[in-house]
Design brief:
Helices cover 44% and strands 14% of the residues. It is of the alpha/beta class. It folds into four domains: 102 residues, Rossmann fold (3-Layer(aba) Sandwich); 189 residues, P-loop containing nucleotide triphosphate hydrolases (Rossmann fold), CATH 3.40.50; 82 residues, Helicase, Ruva Protein, domain 3 (Orthogonal Bundle), CATH 1.10.8.60; 41 residues, Arc Repressor Mutant, subunit A. The chain has a five-stranded parallel sheet, sandwiched between helices. α5 crosses α7 and α13 crosses α15. The longest helix is centred in the N-terminal third of the chain and has 23 residues.
Length: 463
């Protein structure tokens, strides 16, 4: 990863020094300023990629600093630091173009992740704007601390980029992203936001499986002070905070039915009321949801609301697993090898052909995330300038996918489509009989036929 130049503007020397020392260890180039006038002088004389700005400052507040930076140097990404009780200022900062914020006290590793995330999406936006798919790198340091790049030039990868570009051009269309774990669903969501007209406002990710029933309304809608035990101050919910921005609902399939009903009501009314308040707040938020489950199957099992599914899936993006774009593996391997070699100060310039072929035949149940971990381990083990077979000893022959018809035994999409086609043929395209044979409802069969674009019974030729 190329060097990043970071400016830290905070009137507390302890904060400047702690952040600066930590980021310097991560090979960032650091500049420090105690007051805005010093910061502006640094910006004029040096190349700054990211500015970390405290909201409470001498001479002027952080919002005014943000305004001036965005006016004179719009390419600089700004991360705001706020104290307790500054949520209204944070919301205003995000609306003025801040890319992220942290509330004191915060963990330094979170700051590092935010910087990686911000820099990666600076690169991503430039590449997607030019639509240079041959070197497209859509990467992000995710909230859980895992880096999951999307790199490639395969037909499947280009299709996803094209869909991202098309949907980003719309203003409010809801998006449902489906794909296996490790395929980069949050990256795609963040990329859509970054290419859209909402990019100057907040993108926030919510892990739906981690929100309990008791906290759902407080987290999403906010609450008034004293509305329940522990509500010591008023809080804005994520719908309000992300107003004019994008709210990413990760693992939407894990959201309980009761919460799904509440979410649907908000999406239909486009209004929220804080817990303890009867006043409705208008919201303008784009919703992007994602799941690694078969949502249509969950609907048949009464585990997911069909009306919510239709509300979320106005536009659906299917992310291909890594095994379906094996031609991208060499490019991804090169990227990870270079990244970890630089980080570990090694001079590894490539990978042996035999080892690369082994990776191309591997099935990768963990997708790109798994490949990243495999390359990191290999770089740790390597003492030469080239990765070889011995560095991938954990990939056994039995776990490799052979290049034959057996490969498709693992492809659930292929199996589903093939089973439906065979059932229709055996039942002379009688959908009612075919649904019984497939052990699914007629409605589910109809949806899957449309999903896979399966042709109806061929018409006989008239002689």
């Amino acid at each position: 990863m190329e060097n990043i130049s970071i400016l830290i503007l905070d009137d507390e020397s302890r904060v400047r020094d702690e952040i600066g020392e930590f980021l310097s260890k991560n090979h960032f180039q650091i500049s420090k300023a105690e007051k805005p006038s010093d910061a502006f002088q640094i910006i004029e004389n040096e190349t700054i990629d990211i500015a970390i700005v405290d909201i409470r400052l001498p001479e002027m507040d952080g919002l005014e600093v943000l305004k001036r930076i965005k006016k004179t140097h719009p390419a600089i990404e700004v991360i705001m630091i706020s104290g307790h009780g500054d949520m209204s200022s944070v919301i205003e900062a995000l609306r003025r173009g801040a890319s992220d914020y942290f509330q004191k006290p915060f963990r330094l590793d979170e700051m590092s992740q935010a910087i990686f995330r911000t820099k990666r999406f600076i690169q991503m936006h430039k590449q997607l704007s030019n639509y240079n798919v041959s070197v497209s790198i859509l990467s992000d340091r995710l909230y859980n601390g895992l880096s999951t790049p999307m790199i490639g030039e395969s037909k499947a990868f280009k299709k996803v980029l094209d869909e991202m570009k098309r949907i980003a051009a719309t203003e409010n269309t809801s998006v449902l992203i489906l794909g296996e774990s490790g395929t980069g669903k949050e990256l795609v969501a963040h990329g859509i936001h970054h290419m859209s007209s909402r990019k100057k406002n907040l993108f926030h990710s919510v892990n739906c499986s981690a929100i309990t029933e008791s906290l759902f309304e407080s987290e999403f809608f906010g609450h008034k002070k004293g509305s329940f035990t522990g509500a010591f101050e008023e809080r804005a919910g994520w719908f309000e905070v992300t107003n004019k921005g994008t709210l990413f609902l990760d693992e939407i399939g894990d959201m309980p039915i009761a919460q799904q009903a509440k979410l649907l009501r908000i999406l239909e009314e486009r209004k929220v009321s804080k817990v303890g308040s009867h006043q409705a707040i208008d919201i303008d938020v784009r919703i992007i949801a994602a799941s690694n489950h078969d949502v249509e199957k969950m609907i048949d099992e009464n585990k997911f609301r069909q009306d919510l599914y239709h509300r979320l899936s106005t536009f659906t993006i299917h992310l291909p697993p890594l095994r379906e774009r094996a031609e991208d593996i060499p490019m991804i391997v090169h990227h990870f090898t270079s990244e970890f070699s630089q980080r570990m100060k090694k001079n590894i310039t490539g990978i042996h052909t035999q080892a690369l072929e082994k990776l191309k035949r591997y099935h990768f149940p963990g997708n790109v995330r798994e490949l990243r971990n495999i390359i990191e381990r290999a770089v740790i083990l390597c003492d030469d300038n080239e990765l070889n077979m011995s560095h991938f000893d954990r990939i056994s022959v039995n776990s490799e996918a052979t290049i034959s018809a057996e490969e498709f035994c693992y492809d659930l999409d292929f199996i589903e489509k093939t089973a439906i086609e065979k059932a229709l043929i055996n039942c002379d395209y009688n959908r009612a009989k075919a649904s019984v044979l497939l052990n699914i409802t007629w409605q589910a069969l109809d949806r899957k036929i449309k999903k896979w674009n399966i042709a109806d019974k061929p018409k006989r030729l008239v002689k």
